[in-house]
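Illustration 12: Putative ABC transporter permease protein.
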Amino acid sequence: MIKAGISQHRTAVLLGAALILCAALLIGVLVGPAGLTPDRTILELLDGIPGIHLDSGLTATQQAILWQIRLPRVVLGALVGAMLAVAGAAYQGVFRNPLADPYLLGVSSGAGLGATLAIVSGGALGMFGIPMAAFVGGVLAVFATYSLGRSIGGPQNAVVIILAGVAVAAFTNAAQTFVQQRFDDSLREVYSWLLGGLSTDGWSEVLVVLPYVALASAVILVHRRVLDVMAVGDVEAASLGVDPARSRLVLVLAATLGTAAVVSASGLIGFVGIVVPHAVRLVVGPSHRLLLPLSLMLGAAFLVLTDVAARTVMAPAELPIGVVTAMIGAPFFLLVLRRSRVSA
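Figure caption equivalent — predicted structure in token form:
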């Protein structure tokens, strides 16, 4: 009876999160200029379902705006938000650190350096040069962090890994600043990328990012019970049949791969990996069986709605989405820091 009640509660919570995500996606598609009224937009979306034929009344230009600009942007925002949030929850569980986020191991600084090098090259790397350079930079930074951590304390020591990430981030940030000073004519484009954005050229960015997000999220979700076991400590987890070092490595690699992929497409968008998992944890508790899937769905909803705010607050101008998430996330970060200090 008790197990049935818990199962029903879990199902109800997940269903509620799914409804919130659907509502956020719909708002993201409906809100915007170009004369796309909500009723006609909904009819056009329904017309896209196989077997349904409706006349939305939208012009060919408006249809192109909906299907090739607005909808890809909303989907990309959902993928980025979902990945950053679930990666943040995974990092916090792996390192048992409430302040951990997807940029902990130098992903953001490495991606920023890679993107900066691609930008100052003046397009020599081709159309996908900036995303590819950002992806490679993020992955190499994490590889350097893990190599450094292994050489001075072993990958099983979470504190050593975190400190190694700080050192790698400091080095890559210094290198990025040096490059920016040497090529100051590209500063505007560099800062535009660093502040984050979800502008798309059709569905190309979504198709590039989707496989990485799907794979990384699946690996993290499969390990949700392992994270619950690891929460009691490495020694206790080992006694229960879990290999903490191996699990930590797999989870960190999955979270980093997914984060590097979405960052390469969106630029640096901070605080999502802290705000969403902690908000979920305050409501449903620390169990990763609910925390991870809820972070995935609500992270997607959060970033889609944040992007709506970025597009509308100063319309027709557009705020960098990283600025909006920082305005929300910075006070929340201070709240988390205060709670951590009190609990300690």
